[in-house]
Amino acid sequence: MTQEQYQAIMTEYRLQREKNAEEEARRKEEVRARDPELGWLMTERHQMVLDFCRRAANGQEKGSPVDMMADYNARIRERLLRDGFPADYLEPVYRCAKCRDTGLMGDTVRRECDCFKARAAQLEDRVSTWRESFEAFDEDLFPDTPLEGQSITQRQLMKRVRQVCEDYADAFPSQSPPDLLLSGSSGLGKSYLLSCIARRLRERGHTAELVSSYDAVRLMRDAYFGREDGTDRLFSSELLLLDDLGMEPMMENITLEQLFNLINSRRSRGLPMVISTNLTMNEIKKRYSERISSRLLDVACCRLVMLSGQDVRLLRR
Predict the structure, then answer these.
(1) pLDDT, tens digit, for every residue of 166-179?
(2) CATH number of this structure's domain 130-315
């Protein structure tokens, strides 16, 4: 494993711990809202610990708060059950309880947790089985004839676009602007270039998730309806590559809300996206709400790259 891959996995763990903290805070607010008296009990427990630590620091306390803590914990668990919550609802949240989402185990001798080893193996496997790459990009597939109304050929344009995408991948995570949007009709190589970016980032040890817009909406819809939640890969990966925006089904009160939530959540956490679409800028504005299209087309946050020419898949038949 390279140092970059190691750092990428540790970044995943850091993001998971942040997500855990958000969930713990949400649970506390939920409990306080349903049972204010339980909220006061939680506050009293916290204040008891602070007071004890202050007295101990001043040499005024020689005992232990274990008994008092046990009494508070018992009373809190009892009220949680009475209010319809699990008894451990306010316990720390971990995806992996063995390493507490640090990736490492042991007190004196630190060793990699099984979950770390599994993620490392998965990362290595994805890199080794990825076929598309910038090195394999064949510019000769594109016609060397001038594009209509332009002074360059489709081949020259694609060489420029390829370089934009490779520069983006090599500069990550310091690329500016952070997001990239490839727009153009079908068969111009957009999906291939997204795969190339994903491969380069994974080779450099970063987490990059490539998923179609259709599948992304499906994952978010399933989570919305309480089915299996597989959205972590959408919200937590260092880079999300969203392919074929515009091909997802439009479900009332679901699709637009979930897409906005995804885009806004990643923007607010500084996690970039690369998006491909067959839609024009006007079509994006028409299909999506203003709050979505304004984020996608904000040149301060997203570089817009326009592709044009003939469908190379048809030319190869």
Answers:
(1) 999 999 999 999 99
(2) 3.40.50.300
